[in-house]
Structure formats: structure tokens, C-alpha cells
Design a protein that fits this description.
single chain, alpha/beta, 5-stranded mixed sheet
Length: about 130
């Protein structure tokens, strides 16, 4: 039964983290990745501003990414972003509406980081711990 569910919902498998091709490294540890998506780290080691892109909080892909890759619940991450917005200490990531839009924005935005489902084609971007363009 579980194999059927994975086949029927491929976006529920482990999401891939994507980086703009100009980023120097694809070897980020999980702590650094968490700090990036919590908007606590704002620049890459080379000084380029980090531009974080996410899917809508209500999407299954977003929830899967946050739980599987960041090891927190989506509402916890939302709370962090909201606190930063309301206190004026930071901003929330930019929300994109589709994986196609995510790929386009990662490809065209210097310093960009985001994610797509495991089977989504990622030509022209770097994958975290994976392939290059």
C-alpha cells in the first residue's frame, strides 16, 4: 500500500534543495540550511545576499521539505518568519506558486536557494550535494 502512495504522489518524496549556479558550494550542513531557511543567515560565504524562495505554507511539498530536510514543523517556521516581520528584524522568504516558477527564479536570481520535488527536472541550477548545470 505505501508503495502505491509514493507512486501516486511523487512530490511527497524527499525534496531537492536547489541553488543558483553562481553559488560557490553545494556542501551545506543541516544546521546551516536551517539557519538559511529561518532567515538567520543572510549572506553566502562569498558575500552574496541569500535569496530564499519557498512554496506556499499550505502545499504538501513545503510541509515535506520542512519536516524532512529542516526537521521542524511548518508552523514553527511560519512562527519564526512572522516574528521577524512583526518585530521589524527581518523578512520572510519569497513565496512562489509552482515548481516551474521555483526553478525559473532559482536559475535567474543571484544567491537564490529553494526546493523542488525529488523527480522534478533541475536543468540549469545546482542541487545541494548533487549535480551541477
Amino acid at each position: 500500500m505505501s508503495l502505491f502512495l509514493l507512486a501516486a504522489f511523487p512530490s511527497l518524496s524527499a525534496p531537492k534543495v536547489l541553488l543558483n549556479p553562481d553559488i560557490d558550494s553545494t556542501a551545506l550542513d543541516s544546521l546551516y540550511l536551517n539557519q538559511i531557511f529561518a532567515m538567520q543567515v543572510r549572506r553566502w560565504p562569498n558575500g552574496t545576499a541569500i535569496q530564499v524562495f519557498v512554496m506556499p505554507s499550505t502545499s504538501d511539498l513545503h510541509r515535506t521539505f520542512v519536516v524532512d530536510r529542516l526537521k521542524v514543523q511548518a508552523h514553527q517556521l511560519d512562527r519564526i518568519w512572522n516574528r521577524m516581520l512583526f518585530t521589524g528584524t527581518g523578512r520572510a522568504p519569497t513565496v512562489v506558486e509552482s515548481e516551474e516558477a521555483m526553478l525559473d527564479v532559482i536559475r535567474s536570481t543571484p544567491g537564490a536557494i529553494g526546493y523542488v520535488s525529488e523527480n522534478f527536472p533541475t536543468e540549469g541550477v545546482l542541487e545541494l550535494g548533487g549535480s551541477q548545470p
